[in-house]
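thoughts on my protein:
***
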Amino acid sequence: MLANDFPVLSVALFNKYNTIHTNLLYSCSFFCYDKLHRFFQSSLNTSINILRSLCLSPQLQAAIDLATKAHLGQKRYSGEPYVTHVFAVATRLASLYGNDELTIAGLLHDTVEDSEVVSREMIYEVFGQSVGFMVDAVSKNLQDFFGMDIQFTDKIERFLWAGMKDCRVLLLKLADREHNLATVGHLMSNKQVRMGFETQAIYAPLIERLCFGEACMLQHVSKSLGEYLLSANITSAYALKEHLIAESFANVNGELFGMLYSDITNVVWQIDSYSQYQKMCADEFLRDKISFLKVKGGSDCFDAFFKFTKGAVLERANLRPGYYKSSS
């Protein structure tokens, strides 16, 4: 389902853009949102200018125009025009993968759910099956897929199933989440914690497995995904979800994940690594996002219990619920 790459001139322009911001973006990680926010703020005008200065295909130009029209007058929680989000996502994807259809999907990924002038049928008809499928896969509040006899009640399994069919769905979702995390501070604290938990459970393992953030050919991403699924004997979206959760959390399955997600601010987490505790305490980014409730022991026998108070994701963490008391 992969499309041809951008024309050489387009790739060169995106590579130039990517090089300008490499030091800032790659000196931080997906897990450091304040630096990501500064990166996207500094590159916004560049993103828009580059997208508009390319030797555009008619479809890419049409996608820019439709995204601008669909999000006209809409604002993000940060107060910025909403179209800045889709431009940032599209430019990020283009700079990494140089794939026309993926970039178009980045531009259009929120149009179906956020605009009354755009339907998914329209996306399929105007931009083709591949773009339509990617946009369909990341659109919220949908259970089926256009023109397909399949239904999902779980939103995560829905996009994971699509990502197993076309790895670009996963890359689109990661780019979307990356930019949303960059402005997570504008959300209410409980929504920040919920987004951080979901990111920790599903997106953080995918980032590592797909090497998201490293410019590469889509064929390489597709191969990495295939090898991962094969090595773990993953044959369904349900199994993939369970496996991803297990990479970040101990003693948490999909069912418990749903319970924790619905009442995440009441969850207390436990770690037994003294070195991890020291690292967390030393991380300035985490100081206003984590509250330690109980710490006991030392380097030989250690336990710490804490709650997330704002949105945060711990890199290569293996957390387990220390205890959970429902608010209901």
Observations:
- The first strand starts at residue 267 and ends at 271.
- The first helix runs from residue 8 to 20.
- The beta strands are 267-271, 290-297, 302-308, 320-324.
- The radius of gyration is 20 Å.
